[in-house]
TrEMBL record:
CDD domains: NAT_SF. This is GNAT family N-acetyltransferase. Gene3D superfamilies: 3.40.630.30. It comes from Micromonospora zamorensis. Pfam families: Acetyltransf_1. Residues 62-200 form the N-acetyltransferase domain. It comes from the Bacteria.
Length: 220
């Protein structure tokens, strides 16, 4: 589907897209408070992020739903949070530790905190959305997310994500999300905003869903 305002054609990603999309993810997430906290050394970060996002993207293709654009300038990795924990969760955790090396404790801590504060209602979880830095601020990311939101609205399904900075938080608000209680990462870590996009006719249109230690998310 092509978004008229941006000219971006959105489609489901395939295995043939992995090389280009791993690069988009690694570049888009390279700077920012979470990146500085996870891997303080920029040289190490390039190596770790390449391995980490290769793992994340392949896992998304296997276990979730991945959208991209025709020119591979953007990517969004979604997971339906409606079923019990997949048996592959422990295997993924081991692979994540191998990919992140000495930085694995912080990646594991981030994953654990995200899971502990994850909403208990069924929803689709946006684990990652990334736009090539050279093509940001053109509405491509919003077009990519709106494509999936239309599908969720047809199903009456909410969406959830975590925003790592105020700029992104405001974008998500414009796309229909509302912010819940934030999380603050330990050891002088950054603030993370929990964001929930409900449905117009939901029983709790203004509230934020409760957290619950549901089955572990399979996104990281």
């Amino acid at each position: 589907m092509t978004d008229i305002s941006t000219g971006a054609t959105v489609r489901q990603a395939t295995r043939g897209d992995t090389e280009g999309l791993i690069s988009v993810l690694a570049k888009a997430f390279f700077d920012g408070p979470v990146a500085d906290w996870l891997v303080p050394d920029p040289t190490d970060r390039r190596t770790v992020y390449q391995r980490y996002f290769e793992l994340a993207l392949n896992h998304g293709l296997d276990k979730g739903h991945v959208d991209t654009t025709a020119d591979l300038s953007a990517v969004a990795i979604w997971y339906p949070r409606t079923d019990p924990e997949p048996k592959s969760a422990l295997e993924y955790s081991a692979a994540m530790e191998a990919a992140t090396g000495v930085y694995a404790p912080k990646f594991t801590l981030l994953d654990t905190m995200f899971e502990a504060f994850h909403p208990s209602e069924p929803h689709h979880y946006l684990a990652y959305v990334a736009v090539n830095p050279e093509q940001q601020n053109r509405g491509i990311g919003a077009a990519l997310l709106s494509h999936h939101h239309r599908q969720l609205d047809a199903l009456g399904m909410p969406a959830y994500l975590e925003a790592s900075n105020l700029r992104n938080r405001e974008l998500y608000v414009r796309l229909g999300y509302r912010a819940g209680p934030p999380m603050i990462l330990p050891t002088t870590g950054p603030t993370i905003w929990r964001m929930w996009r409900g449905q117009p006719n939901a029983a709790r249109p203004e509230g934020f869903p409760p957290s619950g230690l549901l089955p572990r998310r399979s996104a990281r």
